[in-house]
Amino acid sequence: METVEVHTKVCGKTTVHNIEAKPGGFTLLVHSQGIRVDVPSFVEVSCRTTIPCMEAVTQGEWEWMSQGDIFKMCWAEAFDFNHRNGSGKELIGVTPPATIEELLDQDPGVIHVAGMIVQGCEAMFEGKNVFFRNPETLLHPATERYIMGMFRKMLELCGGKGTVTKTETDPEKIEAPKPKRGRKKKEETSEKKEEDPAEKARKNRDHCLEWLSKFPPDRELAGTQNLRFTAVQLISEIHQDTLIGKQIIDLFVSRRDGTT
Q1: Are residues 128 and 225 in the same domain?
Q2: Any idea of the CA torsion for 69, 74, 77, 80, to the nearest 10 degrees?
């Protein structure tokens, strides 16, 4: 079973623990006040990082983030109170604010949630693990009840290995990875060793995810007679290892390598 190295510090003394990584992608650490906990190999997200992050976001960046399917679905998981309890009171709303000024005019807990979505998804797309330190900080109890659902949605949509890249002017163009330059080795004259099929499949999967991440999340890229699939939906299909996910990887590889 995979373990995670966790450091705790009490009265200046640090202890290293190897904590078993629980199935499903989540491990909850519960500790007493006065014990500092750190997970060195993980990306840390807390209210000390989320609020400064959102305060630095421009209007153009906010529109790109908040109008994507991933952000909207995670936001709704945290704030769609009416859907869950029928209260009929939507003080925040299931739709993210239209402008960054409107977001920053909200209470700090709302800004914190937006930052957790942005920083958490970004790290997961890069294939990194995330340590959410005291995620309930600044949140109303009603919101605290639903952030685990938000985290599960984030893992569902962004989990696994991926890459966040800048949007290219022509993302439809597919290029195979370029070989590294260097001196030719004698081994090149000998018979080329065949690549392990599992490793080759992993590389193709990662390259396909990298390509898909260049598109706006709600951009329609594929479909059948009755269904349409956006970039974020295709990413989700690949992470869930569905038939559609496998087919999109095969199609990507064939076009990249010019075999169709």
Answers
A1: no
A2: -60
Regarding whether 232 and 151 lie in a shared domain, the answer is: no
For residues 53 and 76, state if they share a domain. Answer: yes
Regarding whether 112 and 10 lie in a shared domain, the answer is no
- Select from 112, 141, 139 the least CA-distant residue to 46: 112
Domain that holds residue 60: 42-158
Q: In this model, does residue 225 exceed pLDDT 90?
A: no
Helix, strand, or coil (residue 97): coil
Instruction: Confirm if 131 and 39 have CB atoms less than 8 A apart.
Output: yes
Task: Identify the CA nearest to 100 among candidates 89, 90, 111, 112.
Answer: 111
Q: Which residues contact 235 (CB under 8 A, 6 or more apart)?
A: 157, 158, 162, 209, 212, 213
pLDDT, tens only, 139-149: 988 788 888 88
Please check whether residues 47 and 154 belong to one and the same domain. Answer: yes
Domain membership of residue 185 (yes or no) is no
Structure confidence by residue, pLDDT tens digits, 127-180: 888 999 999 999 988 788 888 889 988 888 886 433 223 333 344 444 444 444
For the segment 183-197, what is each residue's pLDDT rounded down to a tens digit?
444 444 445 556 788
Chain-centroid distance of CA 208 in Å reads 16
112 and 29 share one domain: no
Distance (Å, rounded) from C-alpha 188 to C-alpha 30?
55
